[in-house]
Write a structure and sequence with these properties.
Elements: H1 2-18, E1 20-25, H2 30-35, E2 38-40, H3 42-51, E3 56-60, H4 63-72, E4 77-79, H5 88-91, H6 95-104, E5 109-113, H7 118-122, E6 126-128, H8 133-138, E7 146-149, H9 152-162, E8 167-169, H10 182-191, E9 196-199, H11 205-209, E10 213-214, H12 217-226, E11 231-235, H13 241-247, E12 252-255, H14 274-283, H15 292-307
Helix pairs in contact: 1-14, 3-4, 4-15
The structure holds 1,3-dihydroxyacetonephosphate and iron/sulfur cluster (SF4).
Iron/sulfur cluster binds next to helix 5.
């Protein structure tokens, strides 16, 4: 406990000395969330990154989120505690394949989920997050064919919700949400018959079909906290429990372990630790460095997304 207190103090001192802001995604460990200036889903964190004042952003999330923050803050330093905090969706979608698709289908509108590399963003017409994907797709003229990338489950969910026929979908998946087994959810519903089910749209269609609510991480937290129900099965990464317990301490939350780790954790997000956060603020490394050209090209689809209401 003493060690934890002193490392927290060191981080807060370094933060002040560096004129830094600490942004944390809901999937970070509770101790990181608790000392962050802002905790949020990927859309909220992109907005915070755009609006902050200071010299350094310490981004406690995954690398693509930090790249987005850098594109929105080309003059500022953006660091991440662990350079290998990647994402299976990013890895499923190489930029050269997207470039080849664009060359073969120049008339298609490319809608990229924010969980993509900055090089893929630079090839895209507009971005979206799990929170605004339906509004973003609805903002595209109905006669245009859309390529939605890279998440197959989010893409199919958006296609069902918008009723859009002319929508092609990449075949990427999240190694966390796409591996929550539907049969474990069935079992949990039997064990907790009064619980409502809240799911992230990266979950498989059979999980989504059993859900009472579908939304981004922040939307799930807000919905559970404001619902009249007292018990929930939460089909997303278990880091959201920190905010859920703060906002609704009297409610009960159950998580479904996936079959890879028998846990509900994102192995990429969990690479970040308090020690690595301290080191990245001390050394200003690992730092996001991007070419001017890629930042300029990626900024347009990001700004287009931020303008969608
Ligand atoms: P959110 O947009 O809900 O923050 O989701 C990001 C993510 O990586 C989900 O797995
Ligand atoms: Fe990527 Fe899935 Fe981890 Fe989110 S939970 S960062 S989509 S691997």
């Amino acid at each position: 406990m003493l060690a934890l207190t002193s490392i927290t103090e060191e981080i807060l001192d370094l933060k002040q000395a560096r004129r830094a802001v600490i942004l944390a995604h809901h999937y970070q460990d509770a101790e990181i969330q608790d000392l962050a200036d802002a905790v949020g889903d990927s859309l909220e964190l992109a907005r915070k990154a755009r609006d902050f004042e200071g010299d350094v952003i310490a981004f406690c999330g995954v690398w693509f989120m930090a790249e987005t923050a850098k594109v929105l803050n080309p003059q500022r330093i953006v660091v991440v505690p662990d350079r290998d905090a990647s994402c299976s969706l990013v890895e499923s979608c190489p930029a050269d394949q997207v470039r080849a698709y664009r060359a073969a289908h120049p008339d298609h509108v490319i809608v990229s989920y924010i969980n993509t590399s900055v090089e893929v963003k630079a090839e895209s017409d507009i971005l979206c997050t799990s929170r605004n994907a339906i509004q973003v797709v609805n903002s595209i003229p109905a006669d245009k064919t859309v390529l939605f990338l890279p998440d197959i489950n989010l893409g199919n969910y958006v296609k069902r919700q918008t009723g859009r026929e002319n929508m092609k979908i990449w075949q990427g998946a999240c190694i966390v949400h796409a591996t929550f087994p539907a049969r474990r959810l069935v079992k949990a519903r039997v064990e907790h018959p009064n619980a409502l089910v809240a799911s992230h749209p990266e979950c498989t269609p059979d999980v989504l079909a059993m859900s009472d609510f579908i939304g981004s991480t922040t939307s799930i937290i807000q919905w559970c906290a404001s619902s009249e129900a007292g018990e929930f099965i939460v089909m997303t990464e278990s880091g959201v429990l920190n905010s859920l317990q703060k906002l609704a301490p009297h409610k009960r939350f159950h998580f479904i372990p996936n079959e890879n780790c028998n846990c509900s954790e994102c192995p990429y997000m969990k690479r970040n630790t308090l020690e690595k956060l301290r080191e990245c603020l001390r050394n200003l490394e690992p730092r996001v460095e991007l070419s001017k050209e890629v930042m300029q090209r990626a900024a347009l689809p990001i700004e287009r997304m931020l303008a969608v209401k």
